[in-house]
Amino acid sequence: MAKVLIDSDQCRRTVARMAHEIVEHHPDTSAVALVGLHTRGVPLAERLRVLIEEFSGEAPALGTVDIALYRDDVGLGGGRRGVVPVVGETILDFDIASHAVVLVDDVLYTGRTIRAAIDAVFDYGRPPRVELAVLVDRGHREMPIRPDYVGRNLPTSRDERISVHMAEIDGRDEVLLEEGS
Predict the structure, then answer these.
(1) Is the pLDDT of residue 77 over 90?
(2) What is the C-alpha to C-alpha distance for residues 32 and 60, in angstroms, rounded to an integer?
(3) Residue range 155-161: average pLDDT?
(4) Which neighbouring-strand residues pair with 131?
(5) Is the pLDDT of residue 76 over 80?
(6) Dihedral of the alpha carbons of 112, 94, 86, 72, in degrees to the nearest 10
């Protein structure tokens, strides 16, 4: 049985607050690039971009990154043993070296996904700064990674699972807590 932790209205307000925080930290939004991580980080980055443009008058650059080939468990028999990665599209069509990159993802858990995303971005150049924005930080870090912008801190046990649904992909906005199996 899943429990709704964040409903659609709370999600909208949370994303708006995150956009305000990014604008406060980066008054010149033309020097910022939002980079959404596939899958749900992409629509989250797009929403942040729209709101940042609404709040500041200028839209930051937008990109996407797929970390499938940068995962540290590909081919090593890790937790995803036997899973062949499906490689999505990485689009970073702006000058990485002249933009502070804000990586955007739906859930921060161990930090391994973010480490992989940093590796992927650095294959395209050396940004002056890399920050992290996540809708949910559920804890249990395995890497020394800390988000700069957090929608909600939702401490969980390792047996629990956080599922983020985004209207662009799932038809509705909500964050669910599910008991593990």
Answers:
(1) no
(2) 5
(3) 95
(4) 102
(5) no
(6) -20
